[in-house]
Write a structure and sequence with these properties.
about 40% strand; single chain; 2 helices; alpha+beta; seven-stranded antiparallel beta sheet
């Protein structure tokens, strides 16, 4: 059953325009699929005068990871915050996202979780074009432990 933007905003700390995902179409213990139309919004909070850089899609991936953690119980307690501490193997295949007409699809697969950190592989595509991929490690602030 798809999860809409309103429910996503309840699961992650991002609110208003900064909640970038429109829908989670599927998820299980290690995987999440989500989509967004927000890369085409002229009021996107990540947009600059030059447009919306594809590297900003890392934030879309991070939000998909956060919603996955909440849905799949990847952590035993809801963290106060998650800190992106490492990006590896990032491949950026297009300079801008706002040049594309189609929806942005986000896939993230959990590779490791130990309660204090989570590692994901992620990929983002628009239509058949993969625009960004890589691996991310997030440290979780459980009860104020990451300061």
């Amino acid at each position: 059953m798809p999860i809409d933007r309103e429910r996503i905003a309840e699961l992650i700390p991002h609110a208003g325009a900064m909640c970038l995902l429109d829908e989670v179409s599927s998820w299980d213990a290690t995987h999440v699929s989500a989509s967004s139309r927000r890369h085409r919004d002229p009021k996107n909070p990540l947009r600059t005068a030059g447009g919306l850089a594809t590297l900003s899609a890392i934030e879309y991936a991070a939000q998909a990871m956060a919603v996955h953690g909440a849905l799949a119980g990847a952590v035993t307690q809801r963290p106060r915050a998650g800190y992106l501490v490492s990006l590896r193997k990032v491949v950026c295949a297009a300079p801008r996202l706002d040049d594309f007409e189609g929806d942005l699809f986000v896939e993230a697969e959990q590779m490791m979780a130990d309660g204090a950190s989570v590692m994901y592989a992620f990929s983002l595509r628009i239509g058949e074009t993969e625009v960004l991929s890589g691996n991310a490690t997030v440290m979780l602030d459980i009860e104020g432990s990451a300061r």
